[in-house]
């Protein structure tokens, strides 16, 4: 599934003007998963893959969501919105819950989720977090596809920073390690499979490598790069090769 914020001003928690124009790229995650499924179909790979596109717009208005609002995610869990510019994880939470109800073998979400990703890994390397049974094969697929992906941990001490006094969870927490805190938030919404265990899941933060303002490099041209489409296709090919 992919984050598809068609434009992200930050909402009431308005972003600074610098770089605001690049927020047209905040739908890159949704574009990645859509094009991955189209690629799988075009290649005729015998796999069932569903793309969930979590699409919205984040704009200030008289009806805009406000800091301190409490919202109910699909499935019933409540979230205290402490920052309206942490909106991507809210639409992604809805999508993760909905996808979980289909009992898939694995859930992979792709999102331009945090500025903290750029601080941690720079403009060209995506961060991958989640179940080792998914993150390991994703890293191997990325290496084979020629894309830069790096596994990051999900430290348990980050979860208490998301506690809320008025809801089940808050949408922001510990600032340091913010990329990982966002992933810890998303993990809360991954459902259980038919075996009663949490569905294998991975989160890929592509905030940096999804959009290129510099010179072309490698596979990537200027502006939207399609980062991780190749990785996801290679991941599916690797699974099929192991089960053949």
Spell out the blueprint of helices and strands:
Elements: E1 2-8, H1 28-43, E2 53-58, E3 69-72, E4 78-81, H2 88-100, E5 107-111, H3 115-121, E6 126-130, H4 132-145, E7 149-151, E8 169-170, H5 178-187, E9 201-205, E10 211-212, E11 223-224, H6 229-243
Parallel strand pairs: 1-2, 4-8, 5-9, 6-7
Antiparallel strand pairs: 3-4, 6-9, 10-11
Helix pairs in contact: 1-6, 4-6
Descriptive overview:
It is a single chain. The protein is of the alpha/beta class. It has one domain (2-243): 3-Layer(aba) Sandwich (Aminopeptidase). The protein is 31% helix and 18% strand. The chain contains 6 helices and 11 strands. The chain has helices at residues 28-43, 88-100, 115-121, 132-145, 178-187, 229-243, and strands at 2-8, 53-58, 69-72, 78-81, 107-111, 126-130, 149-151, 169-170, 201-205, 211-212, 223-224. The strands form 4 sheets. The protein has a 4-stranded mixed sheet, sandwiched between helices. The chain has a 3-stranded mixed sheet with strand order 3-4-8, with no helix packed on it. The protein has a two-stranded parallel sheet with strand order 1-2. It is globular, with a radius of gyration of 17 Å. The model has no long low-confidence stretch (mean pLDDT 97).
């Amino acid at each position: 599934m992919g984050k598809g914020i068609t434009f992200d001003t930050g909402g009431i928690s308005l972003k600074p003007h610098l770089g605001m124009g690049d927020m047209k790229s905040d739908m890159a995650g949704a574009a990645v998963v859509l094009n991955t499924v189209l690629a799988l179909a075009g290649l005729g790979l015998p796999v069932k893959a569903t793309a969930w596109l979590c699409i919205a717009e984040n704009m200030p208005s008289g009806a805009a969501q406000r800091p301190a609002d409490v919202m109910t995610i699909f499935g019933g869990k409540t979230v205290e919105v402490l920052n309206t510019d942490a909106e991507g994880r809210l639409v992604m939470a809805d999508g993760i819950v909905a996808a979980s109800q289909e009992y898939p073998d694995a859930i992979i979400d792709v999102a331009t989720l945090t500025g903290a990703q750029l601080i941690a890994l720079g403009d060209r390397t995506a961060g991958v977090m989640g179940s080792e049974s998914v993150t390991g094969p994703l890293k191997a697929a990325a290496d084979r596809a020629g894309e830069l992906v790096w596994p990051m941990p999900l430290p348990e001490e980050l979860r208490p920073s998301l506690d809320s006094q008025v809801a089940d969870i808050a949408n922001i927490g510990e600032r340091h390690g913010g990329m990982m805190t966002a992933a810890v938030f998303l993990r809360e919404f991954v459902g259980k499979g038919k075996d009663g265990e949490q569905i294998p899941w991975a989160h890929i933060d592509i905030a940096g490598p999804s959009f290129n303002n510099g010179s072309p490099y490698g596979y990537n041209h200027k502006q939207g790069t399609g980062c991780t489409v190749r990785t996801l296709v290679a991941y599916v090919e690797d699974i099929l090769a192991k089960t053949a």
